[in-house]
Amino acid sequence: MSRRGRTVAAVVLAAATAMVTLGTAPGATAAPVVVAAAADGVTADGVSARATAALPRPTGPYPVGTTAVHLTDRNRVDPWKPDRQRELMISIWYPAARPVTGADRAAYMVPAAAEHFDGDGNAGVMNYGFAPGRTDWAAVRTHARVDASASPGGRRPVVLYSPGLGDPRTWGTALVEDLASRGYVVVTVDHTWEASEVAFPNGELAASVLPGMLGPDLDVGALLRKSMATRVDDTRFVLDELEHLKHSRGLPTGLGAALDLDRIGMVGHSAGGFTALQAMHDDRRIAAAVDLDGQLHFPGRDGRTGTYLSGVAQDGLDRPFLLMGTRSDDSGSYHAQPGWDALWQHSTGWRADVTLDGSRHGSYTDAESLLPQLARQGAITPDQLRADTGDVDPGRAVLATRTYVASFLDRWLRGHDDHLLDGPSARFPEVVYER
Description:
By secondary structure, this protein is α/β, with parallel strands linked by helices. About 30% of the residues lie in helices and about 20% in strands.
């Protein structure tokens, strides 16, 4: 769930209210992150072309590989579609054996998902407000090679990534690729029927059910509880499946052997951050987690009244976690959030909380690097861009997110402490260390 008013969760809350009265390798110096600019697109006859954008390059020493995997939970009925078994798509991002050339770079989204993500009324447009039909998402490229052989070097820590409510698993690619380039194996999870769209290998496109659920009888609190329970179940199922995939011949060469399932962390944005902490609370296989601006409490039925703490907020955690907040209307430090404050007071494990000054809710996602480029091409208005990502410099926001997340994971999954999280840092004056 978002902690402010721009994502699908917030759209659900707002609609309901209206209707009822809704970085670098370990030990190295951080290099600048350049957020590439796409040129204004105009065809020869003067008609505006569809906008496109480029992701910032990973900063670690390893080239990156990626592979997509289709999973079916034969022991679980899909909560959103009770006539079906629960099916998921995941992508695994990992250090690759060979460099990736321009021609080999994987697409950011498969064509069917890219076209839907750009369509009017879908969860992606609702979340970030870019103009439908104006962006060629299929033309965006990652920095990874599909099905590349994994780099040798033994077992590597595994990190799960969960996106925000309504976001696809691709929407954190800049962070995920960077972690893979630093030596992590990262597993991104699409939460089917909630994500804006999920493309399956058989050609089916599972579009989000959330936009169609808005109505005067919507129980917002129940919807968000259902979403969170489903997400945590998805996460635990993926952890189970990784045990099987580790010994599977279906993964790229060397990838199964690289999975160190004794060192598992999780990172998530918005509802994905909530998912990461709640899943760590429920499943001791997760040793450490990062919550990127995700609240830890539920509203009442109307979305306006009531504050109901989640299980993780009520009980606290005995393992390390990092909270990363934003400078938006109702965000900031853990002191300002009932769920975050309860978690802080009830936890016994190591913990830290930082706030990225000048940021908004989308600053911890690919919105921070991609949307400014789309704004220069007229696919999103300057006001909407500011509402999504704030006034923070995009390159600095990307660098700060990558560096702080990697510092936390290095400390607790690799035993390497660069002391960035000990207190305020002169390297990142825009990051406020909360006490």
